[in-house]
Amino acid sequence: MRSTVIRQLVEVHGADPRPESPGRRLLVLDPDEVGAILHSKNFRRTDFVRQLSGSGLLATDGTFWRERRRIVQPSFPVREPEAHLESIEWAMPGFVKRLGRAADEDRAICLLDEMMRVISRIVYRAVFGVELGPDEDRVSTFQPMMEAVGAVHWSLVAPGGKIDAGAISRLEQTRALADEEIAWILERRRSVDVGVDDALGRLLAAQADGQIDEKGIHDEVRSLVLAATETSANSLVWCLLLLDDHPEVAELIAAELKAGLGDAAIDAAIWETLRLYPPVWANERQAIENTVQGERTWELGDRAVISAYRLHRDPKYWNEPDLFKPERFAASPDGRWQPPHRFSYMPFGAGPHLCIGRNLALLEMRRILREFISRFHFEFEAPIEIEPILGIVMRPSSPVTVRIRRPGADATA
Predict the structure, then answer these.
(1) Cβ distance 125 to 87 under 8 Å?
(2) Facing residues of 298 across strands?
(3) 378 and 402 in contact (C-beta within 8 Å)?
(4) How far apart are CA 386 and CA 69, in angstroms?
(5) Three-state SS string across 236-299, please?
(6) Distance (Å, rounded) from C-alpha 365 to C-alpha 266?
(7) Can you give the pTM of this predicted structure?
(8) Pairing mode, strands 282-287 and 291-293
(9) Which residues contact 151 (CB under 8 A, 6 or more apart)?
């Protein structure tokens, strides 16, 4: 059975990454202190992500961030968790057909590619108001930029890391390619209305009112692609790897689906996957003035490193924290699961910048897993070789190859 321990993160977040001034980077592992920093006016997001992805929701703060969030928030209604269900259901037949074709042809597929394809079809329609065909793979245009962003990020946070000039150059080149795809998205959205309340449609309406310019729209689309595609696709792969290691959990899910008992087992598996493999494994906040927070004094320019990986595995809050135990997310008698501490579990961030698309992400992961598990059996090829790659997000090493079969098919045929 695969270990869920990520040795790189044990090393990187085993102690303060940079304990000496100037520009200290200090770990924050106490959930109370995490909450205080995330809500403090004395800390802001660092300028690092803004330099990489532009001034979109993913990287900004303050009044600028609030104004932009106000534009797109209505297309992600907090109290309507199934607001994007239509777009998800729209994408499912093409997803199932592609998998069925691979099963009938006994053809190995790259699981991550298939998850990226179906997630991108959902996101393009639900968030950008653009419909893609089942076999279209336009989001792969962003993949080199995502990998370049991750390489630059890792070069800075790794022990002894420093800025890699080559990685910066690759980022600039790949970002230009991604901007060509953004221009295509904008042209398509302006010419065709598919009838959904999408974030891009609201941004274009705001542009007509003078609230945002063309560069601002490009920044927001870039941020939304980074936040909404790779994170969910990677999490689905990690979840299926964990289910491969724990067939009893996969069998429980399949049995509940067959009996029509709902999605409780799927949801628990998703939440536990996000605990063990948080898509964004760390966040940083920078002190904008000298300040005291709790028992620690922060100097101007210090960075607070909030390790979701360490918080999610703190034995004070999680029993046997390195084990895959979805049952820990069973609902209480009132029907709701509560974390052991408000800031001990934050797969979608926390505080004012809680992920705007969390409902969409959870709903699409649930629906995709439901289709995948209820319709197919799957077998990974060389799963032991799949390791986490740490960039801005935590993604599996490639290729992630699987063979899928229809229920009842002979695996040796």
Answers:
(1) yes
(2) 291
(3) yes
(4) 37
(5) HHHHHHHHHHCHHHHHHHHHHHHCCCCCHHHHHHHHHHHHHCCCCCEEEEEECCCEEECCEEEC
(6) 9
(7) 0.94
(8) unpaired
(9) 164, 167, 170, 171, 391
DSSP codes, 165-183? HHHHHHHHHHHHHHHHHHH
Q: What is the C-alpha to C-alpha distance for residues 343 and 312, in angstroms, rounded to an integer?
A: 9
Cα–Cα distance for residue pair 199/128, rounded to 1 Å: 6
Q: What is the DSSP letter of 6?
A: -
pLDDT tens, N- to C-terminus, the chain (413 residues): 788 999 888 888 888 888 887 888 899 999 999 999 999 999 999 877 777 678 899 889 999 999 999 999 999 999 999 999 999 999 999 999 999 999 999 999 999 999 999 999 999 999 999 999 999 999 888 888 888 888 877 777 776 667 677 777 888 888 888 999 999 999 999 999 998 999 999 999 999 999 999 999 999 999 999 888 889 999 999 999 999 999 999 999 999 999 999 899 999 999 999 999 999 998 999 999 999 988 899 999 999 999 999 999 999 999 999 999 999 998 766 667 889 999 999 999 999 999 999 999 999 999 999 999 999 999 999 888 899 988 888 999 878 999 999 987 755 54
Q: Are 232 and 365 in contact (CB under 8 A)?
A: yes
Report residue 174 as tokens: 């790949």
Q: Which residues contact 9 (CB under 8 A, 6 or more apart)?
A: 281, 307, 309, 310, 390
Q: Residue 397 in contact with residue 385, Cβ under 8 Å?
A: yes
Q: How far apart are CA 349 and CA 239, in angstroms?
A: 19
What is the per-residue DSSP string for 91-140?
HHHHHHHHHHHHHHTT--EEHHHHHHHHHHHHHHHHHH-----TT--GGG
- What lies within 8 Å, CB to CB, of 166 at 6+ separation is none
C-alpha torsion sign, points 257, 260, 262, 265 = negative
State which amino acid sits at residue 362: L
Please say whether the beta carbons of 306 and 282 come within 8 A.
yes
User: Quick check: 344 and 338 in contact, CB under 8 A?
Assistant: no
User: What is the token pair recorded at 85?
Assistant: 């269900």
